[in-house]
Amino acid sequence: MSDLTVASPAAPAMPSAKPIDSYKPFWAKRFGPAKFLPTSRAEMDALGWDSCDIVIVTGDAYVDHPSFGMAVIGRVLENQGFRVGIISQPDWLSAEPFKVLGKPNLFWGVAAGNMDSMINRYTADRKIRSDDAYTPGGQGGARPDRCSAVYAQRCREAFKDVPIIMGGIEASLRRIAHYDYWSDKVRRAILMDAKADLLLYGNAERAIIEVAHRLAAREPIESLTNVRGTAFLRRRHDPTAEGWFELDSTEVDQPGRIDQHINPYLTTGQLAAEKGETCAMEEAGAFDPLQGSGKVPAGQAQAGQTGQAALSSTQVDLRGGAKPIQIVRNPALSHKAAALPERSGKIALPPRERTVIRLPAYEQVKDDPVLYAHANRVLHLETNPGNARALVQRHGEGPGARDVWINPPPIPLTTAEMDLVFDLPYARAPHPSYGDAVIPAWDMIRFSVNIMRGCFGGCTFCSITEHEGRIIQSRSEASVLKEIEDIRDKVKGFTGVISDLGGPTANMYRLGCASKAIESVCRKPSCVYPSICQNLHTDHGPLVRMYRRARALPGIKKILIGSGLRYDLAVRAPEYVKELVTHHVGGYLKIAPEHTESGPLSKMMKPGIGTYDRFKQMFEQFSEEAGKKQYLIPYFIAAHPGTTDEDMMNLAVWLKRNGFKADQVQTFYPSPMATATAMYHSGLNPLKGISRDPGKGEKLDVVKGEKRRRLHKAFLRYHDPNNWPLLREALKEMGRGDLIGNTPNHLIPTYQPTTDGGYESARRKNSTQSGTKTSVVTVGRAAGQGRGSQAQAHSAERDPRNLPASAGRPAGKTAPRPGQILTQHTGLPPRQQQVSGRDARPTGKPMAPRGGKKAR
């Protein structure tokens, strides 16, 4: 319909947001900051509090550090003047532990912790992990499965009338109906199971501040429906949803708007009658050749002319009755003409900020993998804060049906706001109630500094985009340097080595789109795939300058880079690679090509292996110029959707040709809401579009079943004799028996050494037997207790955290010698380094790397 067509609007700018430091502080600001947020009534009394305004329940041990989500949210709310308490890892078998701090004045804050509770609890093979890095002593089992929902239910049981607000990565990844790998089915949105009032997804500082102040102003929780970065439940046909324009996206393969073709056999009057109007000129006989006179609308007659004279200028008798037709504007629409914008042939849509997309209902996606993949594709297209629209998904049928309403993502924090968040008075230590118990996750990051958030890589198996977004949020250089100085001056045990200066990706600091206008309308899932976007600003200069200033700080001996490196960006900045290799690599550098074959890489949205080769050449060149022996540690994924057996075979050949022997391997783990998880569940590629037509879209080879997943892992560990029988069988079936032989050029030998013949995962091999403690923290102590006083004396001489001990190893397995390097890849030469101070070891003995995080 022509009156629905308008010109396309100008490109919108990124929506603005209220600065997080512009709110009037809550009255309790007078109490000032606490050294640690209270976890007991005694601590509240010491602070002079009679109650908490907000109580945060978390599945992690309470560590007051900006790398732990509960500490960040707690300190941000404290900075706004609210009294915040922490309940960490409560006993969920009853509601009593949730009452320890009393009734919150405003709301409960519930989060599973820094990790999804199911990923934290189970391996990629659905086996129970025996340790938990976020628990004192590294012991597993300190939180329930589907932790957020369980905690929310107990909070409701403890105090029924207190609002419950969920957050954290577990809630973020479950905000809509999602495939659950552990039960192998599609589950409802977590709000339906948890019965919480509001869900905050992503890094929620901006949203939680707005929500807290509005609740403090006595606004009911039900009215908080316009906060970005939130999800909530609505009844169908709720009057509060009026004024929204709904786009139906509940099915695939449906055509868009179809304009009705004009019937050429209808007269002008008949066409007008179909629209409920009349044709004034036809009624006046203007088109009747036998009518020599007639009346015309007043606007058609020229001044001073009669109707006949006016007609004579437009009607020409052609003796056969035919005459040319003059196109005139319909007088009935003349009063609307001024209000109509210029016509351009495009559909007039309402503003995006008042548009909501209806996804297929839960009852549809749970039984239809095609619709599940379609819903996943739509969700990932609506992740840019500059142009994302709200989403809605129905759960249930009949009067009891509910809509899960998801508002657009939050506006990213500015540099000043990032500085505010990270400069808050964190104690940078675990809560004193843990005593001397070691928290492995804290040990890993206590000397590290987070310099940015977000990632525009768009890897389909990764959940960073769904949680943090793809717009990079960077801290200022001054804020980063201040944190390094705080670590130097305040953190116990600091020896002058910063273990990491990074984030989700080591080298995306200050990178982003060169045009804010383009950034606000872009809908690409990745800025670097299939190639680096021409609009992407890739200058590594600010990062290089910060490295140099950080190294120059007094008391700083070494700054290592432990975060993963995006090498396709690094090859564009040789100066950065040289700076990194010369000063910031502790012998080994982790990078993640993930695969060598184009098929799997295209499903992961990763660069080709040729880019890795170029980076490797630069790495080796600059290492040689610096006079250092340094090595790359590449990471690979087995059994990713779209990976064939031939792809894994080619990867194994590449590994052998390049001399890599993978000790620990990473098998694809379908996390909720990831694009690769939609591939795994549906067998379709959402990156290519979704259709029921077999000729459209792309079907994928999905690796399911224990035997085939074992085969793909076996190709990565081709050097393990236990894998050789399985590999021989597979290679023969694939017609590649030529790779079986006893020369260095063959992949596996024809002979079979004496082994138990069974499969043993790398994690289990390097851990202990079932039923014993397997944390790298506690295992050393258990080993000392089980081997007599001599072993105890030896274990006391060195920190058991530095090296997994041999307790519980199968017979015939020797314990690693003190100081032996245990990296992901065996066969690499150990790093030779002499260190002075309490960590000194005899020259020539290898030393465990201090900058890298151990691969899981």
- Taking all Cα atoms into account, the compactness measure Rg is 33 Å
Number of helices: 30
Question: Sheet with the most strands?
Answer: 10 strands, mixed
Low-confidence stretches: 1-11, 292-316, 761-817, 819-856
Shape by Cα distribution = globular
Structural class: alpha/beta
Number of strands: 29
Fraction of residues in H or I helices: 25-40%
- Please report the distance between the alpha carbons of the first and last residues: 58 Å
Strand percentage lies at 5-15%
Overall average pLDDT:
84
* Spatial arrangement of strands, main beta sheet: 4-2-5-6-9-10-15-14-13-11
Descriptive notes:
Helix content is 29%, strand content 12%. The chain has 856 residues and is α/β, with parallel strands linked by helices. α13 (369-381) packs antiparallel against α25 (675-682) and α24 packs parallel to α26. The chain is globular.
Structure described in brief:
By secondary structure, this protein is α/β, with parallel strands linked by helices.
Topology:
Blueprint: E1 5-6, H1 41-47, E2 54-58, E3 63-64, H2 69-79, E4 84-88, E5 107-111, H3 117-121, H4 147-158, E6 164-167, H5 169-172, E7 178-180, E8 185-187, H6 190-194, E9 198-200, H7 205-216, E10 230-235, E11 245-248, H8 268-274, H9 280-283, H10 307-312, H11 334-337, E12 346-347, E13 355-358, H12 362-365, H13 369-381, E14 390-395, E15 402-406, H14 415-422, E16 429-430, H15 440-445, E17 448-450, E18 452-453, H16 464-468, E19 473-474, H17 477-490, E20 497-498, E21 500-502, E22 512-513, H18 516-521, E23 536-537, H19 541-551, E24 558-559, H20 567-570, H21 574-583, E25 588-594, H22 598-604, H23 609-625, E26 631-638, H24 645-657, E27 661-662, E28 666-667, H25 675-682, H26 706-716, H27 724-733, H28 762-765, H29 778-786, H30 788-797, E29 825-826
Parallel strand pairs: 2-4, 2-5, 5-6, 6-9, 11-13, 13-14, 17-21, 20-24, 25-26, 26-28
Antiparallel strand pairs: 1-12, 3-16, 7-8, 9-10, 10-15, 14-15, 18-19, 22-23, 27-29
Helix pairs in contact: 2-7, 13-25, 17-19, 19-21, 21-23, 24-26, 29-30
